[in-house]
Amino acid sequence: xxxxxxxxxxxxxxxxxxxxxxxxxxxxxxxxxxxxxxxxxxxxxxxxxxxxxxxxxxxxxxxxxxxxxxxxxxxxxxxxxxxxxxxxxxxxxxxxxxxxxxxxxxxxxxxxxxxxxxxxxxxxxxxxxxxxxxxxxxxxxxxxxxxxxxxxxxxxxxxxxxxxxxxxxxxxxxxxxxxxxxxxxxxxxxxxxxxxxxxxxxxxxxxxxxxxxxxxxxxxxxxxxxxxxxxxxxxxxxxxxxxxxxxxxxxxxxxxxxxxxxxxxxxxxxxxxxxxxxxxxxxxxxxxxxxxxxxx
Length: 296
Known about the structure:
Order of helices and strands: EEEEEEEHHEEEEEEEEEEEEEE
Distance between the termini: 37 Å
Number of domains: 3
Shape: elongated
Largest sheet: 6 strands, antiparallel, barrel
Number of strands: 21
Strand order of the largest sheet: 1-2-3-6-5-4
Radius of gyration: 26 Å
CATH class of the largest domain: Mainly Beta
Strand content: over 45%
Structural class: mainly beta
Helix content: under 10%
Number of helices: 2
């Protein structure tokens, strides 16, 4: 453990009375903690024509008395602010020492928190929730991109073979012929953000119906008994993109780029907070896209 012996101040977001019967959020100092600060990595890059410096340190301390550290806390030292990335117990019995991995990012030589001041708490919390999501070589919507035409039987069918997953999390389309007036719901079973999920999509005879949920993977398609041998069902994917994290609010997506063009103006009115999707209609074949948003 080679590094300076320092005393950092542990700070936590707390509610403080504004004197008018309400509260504001602010950083409160909890405890000054002594330890050894060891630099791990350092990196420099240009961002918006300003130099951004990122550093990672380990802070080795004795287990603090009277306070339980949280990853949402920060440390302050000589005008510098450090996020807590990971808390790891070490020592002979794994509970008398802590190795705390800290992350520091400065922009233009000035700490992110220092630039705004301790009272600008929402900006900092939002910064920690920012998610960049990239999509490369996207596929255009395809009405049989999940499964080609399935002929009805007049009885319920559970289809698990020959299913192709979408390129990214996409909403599902159901396209049905109309020879003998097919009816009922097609049940889609699959995975959304790592969790098993389902969606019933009502058939529109002779047309295409669209689901709202964005499936990462489809594992089973259940065709209803209302589809006879006279009609077929195609299962595809469409233009609603699922986000890897849940959105904080309807206005959380603040940047959209398609290939090299800024398309942020296309976001308004296209966000669904219930399903955490963005309607990107129409997605072109081989399109690259980047979204930036604040997660829940």
